[in-house]
Amino acid sequence: MADECFGNPRLAAIYDPLDPDRSDLGAYLAMAEEFQARRVLDIGCGTGVFALLLAGRGIEVVGVEPAGASLDVARAKPGGERVRWIEGDATALPPLRADLATMTANVAQAIADPDSWHGTLRGAYAALRPGGRLVFETRDPARRAWEGWTREESYHTADIPGVGPVESWHRVTGVEGPLVTFRTTYVFAADGAVLTSDSTLRFREREEVEADLALHGYETEDVRDAPDRPGREFVFVARRPHA
Ligand SMILES: C[S@@+](CC[C@H](N)C(=O)[O-])C[C@H]1O[C@@H](n2cnc3c(N)ncnc32)[C@H](O)[C@@H]1O
Hints:
Layout: H1 9-18, H2 26-34, E1 39-43, H3 49-55, E2 60-65, H4 68-76, E3 84-87, E4 98-103, H5 107-110, H6 114-127, E5 128-139, H7 151-154, E6 156-160, E7 164-176, E8 179-188, E9 194-202, H8 206-215, E10 219-224, E11 233-239
Parallel strand pairs: 1-2, 1-4, 2-3, 4-5
Antiparallel strand pairs: 5-11, 6-7, 7-8, 8-9, 10-11
The protein binds S-adenosylmethionine (SAM).
S-adenosylmethionine binds next to helix 3, helix 5 and helix 6.
């Protein structure tokens, strides 16, 4: 299971208010503008924050997400009817001819299983028009971000309207080569409920991602920095060639 909290309705409902700072999406919005995207496929759209930002700018958006509970949150948001939501992953998409495909907030790392990863790259390629781009971020393994995923360093509390105070923290439970598994604990003050969610992320080297992209026919046009997390992420801009 890559990231089971997104499929739990109680956890999906607090995903946005727990971390309302989505300045990470600014770079993706800027890229949609830079590439003059009129049709975007958002892979692993979660609760639909980015898909709805795009739709609000008049862009045609398809959001695909395997976790039904997250998609329910997305659908219910104002403007939700402007997006075409698909429950699933990028391996079985209808024909789209998208200008841009995106994987925001480390979706690429959540696709930890090699078959799913290759299926995603293949599916995104097929969904792009010739000349269309796939953009996504992945943490630089050299920065060893998981070392900060301790209770002490990740402890967070938020008072969520309609829910009450929620405490949360991460704790790494295993590191096996490029795979990092961690448990997130959520404590709901309102009823004392304690929920946990286990996630596994794959940390890929830059060269490995470039090789995988080439294998599936993409040209890596650029590898950028994430402006809100300088030096910590690789932001890949990969292009489906014109012909
Ligand atoms: C950290 S969340 C990011 C959600 C959203 N992109 C955002 O910016 O808020 C990672 C998402 O990746 C999704 N995911 C996991 N495996 C996936 C797969 N094989 N294909 C597509 N999405 C996947 C999870 O369900 C989750 O919604």
